[in-house]
Amino acid sequence: MADWNLRPASLTDIEPVAELRAVVMRPDLERLGRYDPHRVRQRLRDSFDPAHAWIIEVSGTFAGCVALRPSPDAHWLEHFFLTPELQGTGIGTAVLRDLLDRCDRDGVPVRLNVLQGSPARRLYERLGFRLETEDAVDVFMVRGPAPGRRGRWPAPSRAISRTPTPAERRP
């Protein structure tokens, strides 16, 4: 697995993230009969808040995005996109594990929604998310905090870097 870094998102990141969203969500949205090239990008533009988002970089290059939006009873995992060529390499799992460890310290659940039939659901289930509710389009999932992990963690104004361990560098 390559070295990865999370840097705070900015307003200039909206368009690259909107484009990535259109690419990675297209197969699932087409399968569900809901793909609209304008709408898929506009929904990101309308909801992206850089104050709660990080850009994923791999070897110094844009590779994706992830956001954690605080709400009164949970953090919402949103805008978690990774370029197709990096999916399945373990980077997404490592990024999400790091963020979940930090959320555990807050002692609040993490919620998300994923499209019906999306392969991403398997990743979320592996990391402890469980079904909360679902409809014809979305699956809503929740993961409770791990016990005994209290404390505050850095907001997106601080970068997070991580170099994989030797075990994670397997080919």
What would the keywords be for this entry?
171 residues, alpha+beta, Aminopeptidase, 8-stranded mixed sheet, 8 strands, 30% strand, globular, disordered C terminus
Can you put this structure into words, describing what you see?
The chain has 171 residues and is an alpha+beta fold. It has one domain (4-164): Aminopeptidase. It has 4 helices and 8 strands. The protein has helices spanning 14-31, 37-47, 91-106, 120-126; strands spanning 4-8, 53-58, 61-71, 74-82, 110-115, 130-134, 138-143, 160-162. An 8-stranded mixed β-sheet has the order 6-7-5-4-3-2-1-8, with helices on both faces. Strand 3 (61-71) and strand 4 form a beta hairpin. Helix 1 (14-31) packs across helix 2 (37-47). It is globular, with a radius of gyration of 16 Å. The relative contact order is 0.19.
Give me the secondary-structure topology:
Elements lengths: L3 E5 L5 H18 L5 H11 L5 E6 L2 E11 L2 E9 L8 H16 L3 E6 L4 H7 L3 E5 L3 E6 L16 E3 L9
Parallel strand pairs: 4-5
Antiparallel strand pairs: 1-2, 1-8, 2-3, 3-4, 5-7, 6-7
Helix pairs in contact: 1-2
The amount of helix comes to: 25-40%
The CATH H-level homologous superfamily: Gcn5-related N-acetyltransferase (GNAT)
The biggest beta sheet is recorded as: 8 strands, mixed
Q: Please give the CATH class.
A: Alpha Beta
**Strand order across the largest sheet:** 6-7-5-4-3-2-1-8
- Globular, elongated, flat, extended or rod-shaped: what is the shape? globular
Give the count of helical stretches. 4
The ordered H/E elements are EHHEEEHEHEEE
CATH architecture annotation: 3-Layer(aba) Sandwich
The total strand number stands at 8
Count of domains? 1
- Could you name the ranges where pLDDT drops below 50 across 5 or more consecutive residues? 151-158, 161-171
Strand content: 25-35%
- Which whole number gives the mean pLDDT? 88
> How large is the radius of gyration?
16 Å
CA(first)-CA(last) distance: 7 Å
